[in-house]
Specification:
Shape: extended
Structural class: mainly alpha
Strand content: under 5%
Strand order of the largest sheet: 1-2-3-6-7-10
Number of helices: 37
Low-confidence stretches: 1-19, 376-399, 521-539, 1221-1247
Helix content: over 70%
Radius of gyration: 57 Å
């Protein structure tokens, strides 16, 4: 019977291999693979593919093991293939991609780990030298699909086919390559998933820390608020009445989100709550600091000096005192609104300072302008006379060139201002028209019924438009004034512009200066009052003319926004009011839906229908009343409030309805199931009561302020409550149907194990599995039952999360109970065998320890104690010399363990006996290790001693070889000292190697030899380096000598050229003498023994550079001296040429041009001032050449005059001859006609997912 069952088992285990095909399947056509495909067949062949049957069978078997999801098709050729309208390779590819995937089980192949489709087919066309490849979803998602075949995945196949046409290798290499990449990327995905899980854990911990921090901040806020309430005298302000309970609820909600795994929502909730608390704390802090701020503002207003004629400024200051007093009153009540009043007063104080400054500026400029105009009138009336016109004309002709640039600049600036005005004029006119259409004139707003915010916004819009109008008017006036200055229409200003730049300069100043606009005066443009909608602004202001467009556009934008709000208010007030009324009616009708749930009394929203909706209706009524004259206030105030209330109430009702319709029935079923499990469900009713109370409280909150966020939080709490109930049921079922039966089964297992082991050990059952409290299964079972009871208590309290944690711990105690039983039974089963093995190993090791004792004794005689240390670095004191004692102590411990383990086993302490046997095995292993280490140390010491002797002999030869090179005088003293140290090191190393007995430490000797070797290597390197440095120093000396010879040659040239030396040349020559002495000193040092050649080389290099620099200076000065002498010669030649120049018409050069300059040049060369000499000689040449040029010009003038006189004489003679020849009767008309005919003749002329590649 057992043999039969074993045979069946073997058959079942080998079933996949038995079902697998043994060889390739031959096909008549490649497209026939669709009908012939089978799950156990992987290799298909069409035609002759040059592979034997054995090779095909081997490849099929390989695919059975390595490519179970692959289909391989080997084709001699694709000729004759046809599928639908396709032929050849296209037909094969379309048939496999369409029908093989869609009509066979190949398309259903899936990976067990990912569940993704993983079918792959690979086709080789031998005649066409092509491949086709397709990879399923699992491959395509990881960059291994057909679209990545060509140029990427086909490398292995191409390599095999190009290198001998190895078809089987092409298949194997392709499958191996792609499958290897796939497994690599799957492993990478697993690692990325693990990393993402770790990151999520870190994020969760961060959010937990944020919530904890927010809770601490909440406690701090509560303490500060309590202290504020005690210190405050009034209890009516919103700061005093602030409730912190909503923040506590929000933080609790954040923890709920976190428990459900919604980390981002928990983070947002915690951060937003923390931000709200931070803002409130800032409000409290600002409230405490506000009195000092008010005192400073009051003192500032008292000290502010307003001009005595600035009535508007004086009035504004009184108003600011009143605003400040109102802010103080609101502050005393504990209301946060004091901040708005205080800010408004501070802004007003700043405006007052600017207004008074502008008033003073306007007044000063007005007075100055009046004085200037008076002065101009006096000049114009007193300066007109008969001779003025002629004087202006003469002066204008003389100064026209000087005025041209400023005239062009003034004209360009005027055109720029005109262009700017043209850009904004249309916008301004459109805005004026729109303002007139929307609100009309400013003085008619009251008459048209504008009130409140609508009146204020209308006035604000008109003021902005009027400010833009005033700006444009004043700028236009300045443009026209500038035009009158630049393009005057009367003769007198025009004549003035001919002789003076003043008009243009004044125009530029006017068009690029500051303009002061006083709206109390009519705009300066003609016709402006008819276009203006009324004096909507009352304060003067100033602006830079370069910024007038920006200021005007800002005013237009301000006006556009204000008027747009007024226009929108009038346009939309009716529709929004009617929509609000309809929404309120809709809410009222929902009361019937809520009443259907009255039977359970939960979430009825009584306050919403009885109180909140009436408040909405009152807001609607108030908005309707305001709408007649103040639609802006209506939309800002009651209508907006009503819309907000409707929106929030709708959200509250929608959330309650969704909970009732989607989750309530499931909650009731879960409650019943919990009760059937014997669990308390009263917490569900209590939670529903709290949720109902919270909903009613939200209705009250929505009447006072926005409660949108709180309502959203409440709706989420409803859904969280349903999930809580659902989780409670799941954990209750787990406690009853999983943990409880498992605990009972484990108790049964413990009883059975005790009975069985007690019988076999011959002891009472109660002595088994009771070695200690920690190793007693009863203890673990008791803990498991206690954890289950705690979980049940948590479920009764409505804490499923805690219950889950308790049940997890109960499961852990169950696992430890089973582990104790299993380990005890296993220990009993293997005890005898392990005890015998330990005893045998102990006896075997003891036989070898006698050999180790003798070995250690010889080591103690032949070597020092430090050579026998276990840790040669000196970190520990343990020594192999103590090995016999250690081995003996460990052998005794093993013997003790064998006896103790037997005693424990007999007394049913099975786990303790197991631990003892494990300890004994470890001690035996440590004894064997110690014996091996002693033997290894013996071998190491012997080998190292031999190596030390050989190395010492080598290093002694090296020291001997270095003696001669080191004694060379070219080797520096530092290297010689280094070699002396090496010789001392040599003697120490030799002593260490030759030591015997207690002084013999091959390890220390090896270290000493290593140090000696390194020292000798350094000495050899330094010797070679010193010789190179010496050679370089000699080369530097040669270069310095060469530079010295060149410099001395130049010095000699300077001393013998007969030209006075310049100061610069004298200094350079003196420095050369000093450098020469330094060079001789360095040369002497180089001839010494063991010198510091680096220092000498650096000194010589410096001397070489200084000589080169001195040579350059001397060369430059010599060149200047030669140039100076040459220029003097050229000047003298030019002077001689000028003096001896004589023309044919009696012209000669007068005087001696350039002589004085030549004399200056000679004096300069005598002083050694070469540059001055060259400059004066140049002046002399220029003067001489100018004189010659002037003489040549005079000569040419006389020549032209003489030639003209001669030409006149020749013309007179010719006329005399023509007159005398006219009596012969020649016809002049014929000649004239001929010439005319000749001149008159002239003429003119014109003149798939499957990838494919090849190899």
């Amino acid at each position: 019977m057992r043999l039969r069952l074993f045979g069946i088992l073997i058959l079942l285990m080998g079933l996949p291999l038995l079902l697998a095909s043994e060889t390739a399947l031959l096909l008549p056509q490649g497209t026939a693979l669709v009908e012939q495909w089978a799950p156990d067949q992987h290799l298909y062949v069409k035609g002759e593919v040059n592979l034997s049957d054995a090779e095909l069978a081997s490849l099929e078997k390989w695919l059975d093991q390595n490519g179970q999801n692959w289909v391989i098709l080997l084709m001699e050729s694709a000729r004759g293939e046809r599928y639908r309208s396709k032929t050849g390779i296209d037909a094969v590819e379309q048939a496999l991609e369409s029908d093989l995937l869609g009509k066979t089980g190949f398309g259903s192949l899936r990976d067990q780990s990912t569940g993704e489709r993983n079918g792959v087919f690979f086709v080789i066309y031998l005649a066409e030298r092509k491949f086709s490849y397709f990879g399923g979803d699992q491959y395509e998602k990881r960059g291994l699909g057909g679209n990545r075949w060509s140029g990427r995945l086909d490398a292995a196949a191409i390599s095999a086919m190009r290198n001998g046409g190895r078809i089987a290798d092409a298949v194997r290499d392709t499958v191996t390559s792609i499958e290897g990449r796939l497994q690599s990327r799957l492993q990478q995905e697993k690692r990325m998933a693990a990393a993402a899980a770790e990151e999520a854990k870190v994020r969760r911990q961060a959010v937990e820390a944020t919530i904890a921090r927010a809770e601490q901040n909440l406690k701090q806020v509560e303490r500060e608020l309590e202290r504020f309430r005690k210190e405050s005298t009034l209890q009516e302000g919103d700061l005093v009445r602030k409730e912190t309970g909503i923040w506590r609820a929000q933080l609790q909600q954040a923890r709920t989100f976190l428990t459900r795994g919604n980390v981002e929502s928990a983070r947002y909730q915690a951060l937003s709550t923390e931000d709200e608390m931070r803002k409130f704390r800032l409000l409290l802090q600002d409230y405490n600091e506000a009195p000092r701020e008010m005192e400073r503002l009051e003192q500032k207003l008292k000290e502010l000096e307003i001009h005595s004629e600035n009535d508007r400024g004086l009035s504004s200051r009184e108003g600011l005192f009143a605003e400040l007093k109102a802010a103080e009153e609101v502050h005393r009540k504990g209301e946060s609104a004091y901040r708005t009043l205080l800010d408004r007063a501070q802004e007003g104080a700043e405006r007052l300072v600017r207004q008074d400054s502008d008033f003073r500026l306007v007044r000063e400029r007005t007075l100055a302008r009046a004085a200037e105009m008076k002065q101009q009138r006096e000049v114009l009336t007193g300066a007109a006379g008969a001779g003025v016109g002629g004087l202006l004309l003469v002066g204008g002709l003389a100064g026209n060139r000087r005025r041209r640039k400023i005239k062009e600049r003034a004209e360009a600036l005027l055109q720029k201002r005109r262009d700017e005005m043209g850009e904004v004029s249309d916008q301004l006119m459109e805005m004026l028209d729109w303002a007139a259409l929307v609100v009309g004139p400013a003085d008619q707003l009251d008459a048209r019924g504008y009130r409140g915010d609508t009146l204020a916004r209308s006035q604000q819009g008109l003021a902005a438009v009027d400010r833009a109008f005033v700006i444009s008017s004043y700028v236009q006036d300045l443009i026209e004034q500038g035009a009158r200055l630049i393009e005057p229409r009367s003769p007198l200003p025009g004549a003035r512009n001919l002789v003076s730049r003043g008009g243009y300069e004044k125009a530029i100043e006017l068009l690029d200066s500051e303009v002061v606009c006083d709206p109390s005066l009519p705009p300066p443009l003609p016709g402006a009052p008819e276009e203006r909608l009324g004096a909507a602004i009352s304060q003067d202001f100033s602006l830079e003319l370069s910024q007038w467009q920006e200021r005007l556009q800002a005013a237009l934008q301000e006006g556009r926004e204000a008027l747009q709000e007024v226009d929108d208010a009038w346009t939309s007030i009716v529709s929004r009011r009617e929509k609000l009324a309809l929404e309120i009616v809709r809410l009222e009708r929902l009361e019937g839906t809520i009443d259907d749930w009255e039977s359970d009394g939960w979430l009825l929203l009584d306050n919403l229908f009885s109180q909140w909706i009436p408040v909405m209706e009152s807001e609607l009524a108030e908005g309707t009343e305001l709408a007649d004259g103040d639609p802006v206030a209506a939309l800002r105030g009651p209508i907006a409030v009503g819309e907000r209330m409707v929106s929030e109430a709708s959200a509250l009702i929608a959330g309650v309805v969704a909970f009732r319709e989607q989750r309530w029935e499931q909650v009731k079923r879960d409650e019943r199931d919990l009760a059937h499990l014997g669990r308390q469900t009263s917490w569900i009713e209590r939670e529903m009561d709290l949720l109902s109370e919270r909903a009613e409280a939200l209705c009250f909150a929505g009447m006072q302020q926005s409660a949108g966020d709180s309502i959203s939080s409440f709706v989420e709490s409803l859904m969280a409550f349903a999930e809580r109930v659902e989780q409670s049921l799941a954990e209750g079922r787990r406690a009853e149907k999983e943990i409880k039966p498992a605990l009972d089964a484990a108790a049964t297992q413990v009883r059975q194990a005790r009975s069985s082991l007690g019988q076999r050990l011959g002891v009472a059952a109660d002595r088994v599995l009771s070695e200690s409290p920690e190793r007693n299964p009863d203890t673990h079972l008791a803990e498991g039952r206690a954890q289950r009871e705690a979980a049940l208590a948590a479920l009764d309290a409505g804490e499923p999360g805690a219950a889950e944690a308790f049940l997890d711990q109960a499961a852990g105690f169950l696992a430890s109970t089973r582990e104790l039983v299993t380990d005890s039974e296993e220990s009993f089963r293997v005890f005898e065998q392990q005890h015998r093995e330990l005893k045998s190993n102990h006896e075997f090791t003891a036989n070898h320890e006698r050999e180790i004792v003798a070995l250690v004794e010889s080591l103690r005689v032949d070597f020092s104690s430090s050579a026998l240390l276990v840790d040669l670095s000196g970190g520990e004191d343990a020594s192999y010399a103590d090995a016999p004692v250690v081995l003996k102590r460990r052998a005794q411990r093993v013997a003790e363990i064998l006896e103790e383990a037997s005693a424990c086993h007999r007394s049913a302490r099975l786990l303790e006996s197991r631990d003892l046997l494990r300890e004994g095995s470890a001690v035996v292993a440590s004894r064997e290790t110690l014996c091996s280490e002693v033997k290894e140390r013996k071998s190491a010491l012997a080998a190292l001693s031999d190596e030390n002797e050989l190395l010492l002999e080598k290093l002694l030869r090296t020291c001997k070889d270095l003696e001669a090179p080191v004694s060379d005088r070219r080797v520096m003293a530092a290297t010689v000292a280094l070699f002396v140290e090496a010789e001392a090191q040599r003697d120490q190393a030799r002593s260490a190697v030759e030591a015997t007995g207690k002084d013999n430490n091959p390890f220390a000797a090896a270290d000493s030899l290593l140090q000696l070797s390194e020292r000798l290597t350094v000495v050899r390197g330094e010797v070679d380096n010193d010789l190179v440095i010496y050679d370089n120093t000699v080369a530097t000396l040669r270069q310095a000598r060469s530079a010295e010879e060149e410099t001395q040659r130049l010095v000699h040239a300077a001393q013998t050229d007969g030209v006075t030396d310049s100061n610069r040349l004298q200094k350079a020559m003196g420095h050369v003498e000093k450098i020469t002495s330094q060079l001789a000193k360095a040369d002497a040092e180089l001839q010494g023994t063991h010198g510091d050649w680096r220092a000498v080389n650096e000194e010589l290099a410096g001397i070489r550079e200084e000589l080169a620099e001195a040579s350059m200076v001397i060369r430059e000065e010599l060149q200047l001296a030669r140039e100076a002498m040459t220029r003097i010669s050229q000047a003298e030649g030019a002077l001689r040429s000028a003096v001896h120049w004589k023309g044919r018409y009696g012209v000669r050069v007068s005087g001696t041009p350039g002589l004085m300059a030549i004399e200056s040049a000679n004096r300069a060369i005598v002083r050694g001032e070469y540059h001055d000499c060259i400059r004066h000689a140049g002046f002399a040449i220029v003067e001489a050449r100018r004189a010659i040029a002037a003489a040549e010009a005079e000569e040419a003038r006389r020549r032209r005059r003489a030639q003209a006189a001669a030409a006149a004489q020749r013309a007179a003679a010719r006329r005399s001859r023509i007159s005398s020849s006219s009596s012969f009767g020649r016809s002049s008309s014929f000649g004239s006609s001929s010439r005319s005919s000749s001149v008159g003749r002239s003429s003119f002329s014109s003149s798939s997912r499957v990838g494919r590649s090849g190899w």
